[in-house]
Specification:
The chain contains six helices and no strands. The longest helix has 16 residues. The radius of gyration is 15 Å and the shape is globular. The protein has 91 residues and is mainly α. It has one domain.
């Protein structure tokens, strides 16, 4: 484990001790059950190439958080870089 991953691991543990409201979402929502419904909505597999696709379930989680916190696209992106609970998006 490198220094950055160690630091993130420590932060995640601290967050867990004080209460991470997002960590319980995996017990409430079966995110994987959404995969068949959303996997065909976005596809970038043309011969032109381009950036790799994000996982559709990851994108659903991000859209969920964006809706709950009433964030614009730019604000959501900023929060994903700044907030430790948003960095741990696979909640």
């Amino acid at each position: 484990m490198d220094l950055v991953n160690y630091g993130l691991h420590q932060k995640y543990e601290q967050l867990g001790k004080i209460g991470d409201s997002l960590s319980g979402m995996k017990d409430v929502i079966d995110w994987e059950s959404l995969r068949p419904m959303v996997s065909d909505l976005y596809r970038n597999d043309t011969e032109k190439g381009g950036s790799p696709n994000f996982d559709p379930v990851f994108k659903m989680k991000a859209l969920f958080l964006q809706s709950v916190y009433n964030l614009a696209d730019e604000a959501m992106e900023k929060e994903m870089y700044n907030r430790i609970d948003f960095m741990k998006l696979p909640f």
